[in-house]
């Protein structure tokens, strides 16, 4: 996968991309990235990338010219057209399903804004996706872009090493992930559930499914509205609700 990021602060990304899984993914060739400082594409002598909004108002708005010119200078030599992603608090709420969708692409381009907002022509004529990582406002789109890139790259084949890791993540199955334990089996009197020590893989999988379902009920009940519940799932849920007086 090829990733281009348009930003006024490219140095913010160097630390993130130079460590841990993203570093290994780059070294293995799973993805490559290009940081584009779109200030270098301004057409004015002061290198301004923003201006006051027409009609008045507080703050400054990113001008269309440097963004358009920077995008036109990016090589798009992949077989599919790139997805051009605007990091924006007005965008769709980011989910694991969106990460899985983007992980199938060959080329992603991120536009990281700053200041008050974007000239609307950027949104209307360049962008394929608008993404928000939450209902709050940051000083710029850089941190949001880092979140999205990290969540997408870890889904690429061979990046995590263990191919079973990503499909078992919370939200990938539609439910929150089950609890995990490791050695020692008894830590200060806090013991690992016996079923995980039994060696009975069928029972272990059943326990994990139960715990995943119960954790989702307790913490993110809204996720169950769209989850395809089996008859066994429904029976477990009924038992827990009756026991705990949950609606």
User: What is the name of the CATH class of the largest domain?
Assistant: Alpha Beta
User: Can you list the strand order of the major beta sheet?
Assistant: 2-1-6-5-8
What is the overall shape?
elongated
Low-confidence stretches: none
| Secondary-structure-derived class | alpha/beta
The CATH architecture of the largest domain can be named as 3-Layer(aba) Sandwich
Mean pLDDT across residues: 92
Number of strands: 10
Beta fraction: 15-25%
The CATH topology label of the largest domain is Alpha/beta knot
- Largest sheet report: 5 strands, parallel
Number of helices: 8
Count of discrete domains? 2
Short description:
By secondary structure, the chain is α/β, with parallel strands linked by helices. It folds into two domains: 2-153, SPOUT methyltransferase, trefoil knot domain (Alpha/beta knot, 3-Layer(aba) Sandwich), CATH 3.40.1280.10; 173-244, tRNA(m1g37)methyltransferase, domain 2 (Trp Operon Repressor, Chain A, Orthogonal Bundle). It has helices spanning 11-17, 20-28, 64-72, 96-102, 120-125, 142-153, 201-219, 231-244, and strands at residues 2-7, 32-37, 50-51, 61-62, 83-93, 107-112, 117-118, 129-132, 186-187, 190-191.
